[in-house]
């Protein structure tokens, strides 16, 4: 039986190692949804999973988690605004979205819509939000204490043109809203040295010439 030359195994081993890296599933981020409907603090009312399609589910807890206004960066209390706070489970980053509170006046069934702009890797870039109706601002009734929210969620992932495979997509700092300074690009060897080194050692230590064929060819 003819043995394979060890050098012929190198492309197969490297491709197998890289396939293992690329096969890691992308875990979508989950956003906790808080609002300031009936208190002077943010109270959790649901969770938003940025999957395809996205999913929203109410919490339904008797004593839901709360976040005090004083702990939220870049937030100034404004009782004329209905505010929704999103908190990422992956990064703990917070994002506050607001609409005029009067849009909820006298409406027991409130429709709201989140349009989430995300990077290809699932990172949160920006969120557009709307709730209630402008016509409600002419209604003298107050906002109901326990309205029912009908939530619609759309996730739009940013699609870029061809880029180097080792390049990293830019990410947005949710605190400042500015693009983070990208890290220096890593070479192929730097990123995957722990796969390549064992393969090279195997080739160096295995060594040996290709075994000669036994017997003579028949004429």
UniProtKB/TrEMBL annotation:
The keyword Oxidoreductase does not apply. Pfam families: ECM10 (PF21203). It comes from the Eukaryota. CDD domains: EMC10. Residues 1-23 form the signal peptide. Keywords: Signal. This is ER membrane protein complex subunit 10. It comes from Coemansia erecta.
């Amino acid at each position: 039986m003819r043995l394979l030359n060890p050098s012929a195994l190198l492309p197969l081993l490297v491709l197998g190692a890289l396939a293992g890296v690329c096969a890691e599933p992308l875990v979508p981020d989950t956003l906790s949804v808080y609002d300031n409907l009936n208190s002077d603090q943010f109270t959790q009312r649901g969770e938003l999973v940025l999957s395809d399609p996205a999913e929203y589910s109410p919490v339904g807890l008797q004593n839901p988690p709360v976040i005090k206004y004083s702990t939220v960066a870049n937030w100034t209390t404004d009782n004329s605004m209905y505010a929704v706070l999103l908190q990422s489970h992956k990064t703990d980053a917070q994002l506050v979205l607001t609409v005029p509170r009067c849009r909820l006046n006298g409406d027991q069934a409130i429709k709201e819509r989140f349009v989430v702009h995300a990077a290809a890797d699932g990172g949160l870039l920006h969120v557009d939000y709307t709730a209630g109706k402008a016509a409600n601002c002419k209604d003298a009734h107050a906002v109901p204490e326990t309205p029912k929210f009908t939530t619609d969620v759309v996730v739009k992932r940013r699609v870029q043109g061809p880029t180097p495979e080792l390049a990293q997509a830019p990410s947005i700092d949710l605190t400042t809203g500015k693009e983070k300074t990208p890290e220096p690009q890593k070479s192929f060897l730097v990123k995957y040295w722990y796969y390549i080194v064992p393969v090279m050692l195997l080739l160096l230590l295995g060594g040996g010439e290709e075994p000669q064929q036994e017997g003579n060819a028949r004429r």
